[in-house]
């Protein structure tokens, strides 16, 4: 077996943690950059000798350069990193970076990302930029073209819907509430996409240009945060195929190797609109750990290291992923939900080892596998009834 390259990961959250599992199996040395000694990812894999996992922000030039000096290749588990430093590191030949820092920079700004994809013929919901510190009049002006409702979105540093604010009317108090909620951040507006379903596809591409997608999944969000994911996408088979095609085409416009999560809206007329792309493992691919022949995490490592890509087919006829979200600062509801799933056949529990629980924070997830959709639905009901906010 060829000597393994050392991989440096910017970010040590749950996605980094799930990358450590296949890294251990494949004997890939990993170094994780994040602030804190016991982040979710650092808990699960020791740094290769003689190193220790660097302790510092993944936006810090000094820390990224220190990581690069100890690694052969850098990658990310979060897009909100310092793309400029990654670009210099790559340019100076200090370390390879995958996916490309240019892709990471483009994706960091959701408005630029949308513009780039729309200009290349990828269908997206209508959208419009807003000036910095927009006034009420600026917001009213975009509704002239986009109609109502609209989704006001932060261009940068958005995740789990925390940069989104739906706006139903142009009443002064509603606009003010949305602007206050989003705070002092660069914003843009999207026309409302009255989707019938949300769909996501994971796409992996290696440096040699080989591309493989996973089966499309249905993602069910509440208040802009992913709750449940169903795999494969149910209903008409053609949609799965078209979603994979669109996702592969969109990723084809981005540079670099690795796994990409492509979020889409399925519209009433069967058309698909692209919502956004993540240049990293994604919550809508977590089920692939138990439910696919090769997990999204393993395929990411294989892709960036030029190892053969793994098969993406599902191992089971039906699967689901249920996020375990914090409901308060107490860990008790998190553990209660995780423990109740242990009695359900086909359920696999993942807890992320986060020190503190907070409302709507992703604390873990459960993957369910079953021999049929009917069997899956029954198991899913058992688990969802144990959720603290099941009736919400
Ligand atoms: P993520 O955690 O996926 O990175 P995010 O914070 O970047 O999320 P988006 O993916 O833009 O936010 O939006 C989150 C959710 O909000 C979407 O999955 C969808 O449910 C809803 N949403 C976003 N944009 C629109 C839109 N234009 N019309 C209707 N619903 C939308
Ligand atoms: Mg996002
Ligand atoms: Mg999203």
Helix content percent band: 25-40%
Number of DSSP E strands: 17
Low-pLDDT ranges = none
Radius of gyration: 21 Å
The SS-based structural class is alpha+beta
Mean pLDDT: 96
Element-by-element helix/strand order: EHEHEHEHHEHEEHEEEEEHEEHHEHEEH
Number of discrete helical segments: 12
Separation, N- and C-terminal Cα atoms: 52 Å
Bound molecules: adenosine-5'-triphosphate, magnesium ion
What general form does the structure show?
Answer: globular
How can the largest sheet be summarized? 9 strands, antiparallel
Proportion in β-strands? 15-25%
Enzyme class: lyase
Catalytic activity: 5-amino-1-(5-phospho-D-ribosyl)imidazole-4-carboxylate + H(+) = 5-amino-1-(5-phospho-beta-D-ribosyl)imidazole + CO2
Family: In the C-terminal section; belongs to the AIR carboxylase family. Class I subfamily.
Protein name: Phosphoribosylaminoimidazole carboxylase
Secondary structure elements and pairings:
Blueprint: E1 7-10, H1 14-26, E2 30-33, H2 61-70, E3 73-76, H3 83-91, E4 96-97, H4 101-108, H5 110-119, E5 127-129, H6 136-146, E6 150-154, E7 164-167, H7 172-182, E8 187-191, E9 197-205, E10 211-213, E11 217-222, E12 225-231, H8 237-252, E13 258-266, E14 272-278, H9 288-291, H10 296-304, E15 318-325, H11 332-341, E16 347-351, E17 362-370, H12 373-385
Helix pairs in contact: 1-10, 3-4
